[in-house]
Amino acid sequence: MSVRLKVTEAIKQIAREQHVTLPELTDDLSLHETGFDSLAFAILVARLEDEIGVDPFTISEDAAFPATVGDFVRAYENVPA
Amino acid sequence: MSPREILALRDYLGAELKGRTLSDAHHLASLTDVLSQTVLGGRLGELSGRSVLLKLSDQLKSGLAMIEIDGIARRMLLCPPDLNPAYLDALIADAEIDAVVTDEPEFWKDSAIPLVVIAQLQLTPAAPAKTECATEWLMLTSGTSGVPKIAAHTLEALTGAIRAEAPARGPAPVWATFYDIRRYGGLQIFLRGILSGGSMVLSDAHEVLADHVARLNARGVSHISGTPSRWRKLLMSGSVAQFAPRYVRLSGEIADQAVLDGLKAAFPGSSIGHAYASTEAGVGFAVNDGLEGFPADYIGVNPNGVEMKIVDGSLRIRSKRTAHAYIGRNAGKLAEDDGFVDTGDMIELRGDRYHFVGRRGGIINIGGLKVHPEEIEAVINRHPDVRMSRAKSRKSPITGGIVVADVILADGTDPARAKEIREQILDQCRAQLASHKVPAVIRIVETLDVTPAGKLARTDA
Q: Which of B408, B438, B412 lies closest to B423 in space, CA to CA?
């Protein structure tokens, strides 16, 4: 499974659990518009760390938290495995 | 009888009741004949009036030495097996120790302690001793880090809850515990064994569970006590089938409904009770209705003389069963000015019962909100396929911290169902807990660590 697919699957899973109705996950959708709150993002980052083995937001102290779904996915894709 | 009606352990023992024993995995000693024998090589008289460090490698010698020394020494400090040796010097100074009872004389060869008495299991005949004084029992608190505190008890305080109960009907009980008798919970059971007129079977840290249970059966154990974590491990072990105690007791941790129900199912003919006690606060109460928590009307003055109140969410206890002081140079106050001991155990009223929600010091911080891991575990443990769980915090770059949980599934659960069970647990948590308490990640694990005191290890909580 590609990193992109893992990320979007995890987002959809958490949306189901949190009863969040997601808009279509396009790259330019702002994370704010996903309907996720900070707890939902915290869950997402923790699960992806377990699944992919990295937490790109902790590795780099100066990494700005992404603004869009595309930025978020790229943050995982760009981490050296 | 002793001066001023001081009762020591020897005064609860005698040769009238036949066949009483104290045993471990390797040896068996007679409690019927114990007063005419010595584990101290006949040197008990030298310990008269002294502050004695009881530092022995096993529980059997420790128990026999306690019986001899109580009522003779001024003080007796019990050392649990996992005591960090680095703390010994501080404890010896604080307790003003001037004698040590040991089975490792080499270790004490160069020590400054003026009297070293060797204990050995080859008991020798001795004239029965007479009680001289009320020995102060010093016990170490099971704090998580640093030098443990020394809490001082009298035998009268230690046995208050036991003497308040009506003697058990039927044959004298054979007591056992998963605890070590050199800690408060285990000592309570040792004292029950002695005061009840029955026998006692000691635990052994090196014995596998199946062998331990076989030994409990072989010795006819009828009454047995342990922490909920120990009981969960036993329920998981598949060793319970042949075991049918009359009385099963839980203490030392929160007994949630899942473990009470699990024990009821495993031991349908047994009485199952959970008790509240701590080294400092003594025995507070026992609950025998099979439900978690305790009835709200226990708060206040109880007929047995135990008073309980709640201040800032934590349970406070005043009774004649509490320890009377911390001992040592920098010892703080054990009780408030009004005599109440703050247990540090946080409780919450739900309907007509109080429920334990966790330790004040065990709170984890989730995005600035306080969470008791025990409260989350109690909800997870209600899932029928879960045997045991542990909640803890994990750092999060988004919220600072999130809750994660490790879960052990019940025996025989199909691993293919892990995903489904994980989702059911999450549903259950979402229905019953505030959203920040719902675990972000649930890991299915094979084991969870239990401390030497039998409690779920929370070192990284």
A: B438
Structure tokens at A45: 């980052």
* B279 class by beta-carbon count within 10 Å (0-12 exposed, 13-18 middle, 19+ buried): buried
Closest residue, chain A, to B425 (C-alpha): A17
CA dihedral sign, ordered A10, A12, A17, A23? positive
- How far from chain centre, in Å, is Cα B236? 21
Q: Which of B237, B293, B178, B290 is nearest to B408 (CA)?
A: B237
Number of H helices, E strands in chain A: 4, 0
| Residues of A with Cβ-Cβ distance to B367 under 8 angstroms | 38-39, 42
If you write DSSP's letter for every residue of B41-64 in order, what string do you get? TT-GGGGTT-EEEEE-SSHHHHHH
Alpha-carbon distance of B176 to B199, in angstroms, equals 9
Task: Give the pTM.
Answer: 0.86
Q: B177-204: per-residue pLDDT in tens?
A: 999 999 999 999 999 999 999 999 999 9
pLDDT per position as a tens digit, B88-106: 999 999 999 999 999 999 9
> pLDDT tens digits for B266-278?
999 999 999 999 9
What is the rounded distance in angstroms from the CA atom of residue B246 to the CA atom of residue B173? 9
DSSP result, B225-247: EE-HHHHHHHHHHT--TT---SE
Nearest to B440 among A43, A55, A58 (CB): A43
What is the C-alpha to C-alpha distance for residues B353 and B145, in angstroms, rounded to an integer? 33
Distance from CA of A36 to the nearest CA of B (A): 12
So what's the ipTM on this one?
0.85
Tell me the CA distances in angstroms from B417 to A17, B56, B132, B406, one per residue in order: 18, 48, 65, 16
For residues B244 and B267, the answer to whether their CB atoms sit within 8 Å is yes
Chain B contacts to A (CB-CB under 8 A): 367, 394-399, 402, 404, 423, 426, 430, 435-436, 440-441, 443
Residue-wise pLDDT for B28-67, tens only, equals 999 999 999 999 999 999 999 999 999 999 999 999 999 9
CA B185 from chain centre, in angstroms, equals 3
Inform me whether the pLDDT recorded for B226 exceeds 50: yes
Q: Do B441 and A43 count as a contact with CB atoms less than 8 A apart?
A: yes
Please give the Cα distance from B424 to B438 (Å, whole number).
12
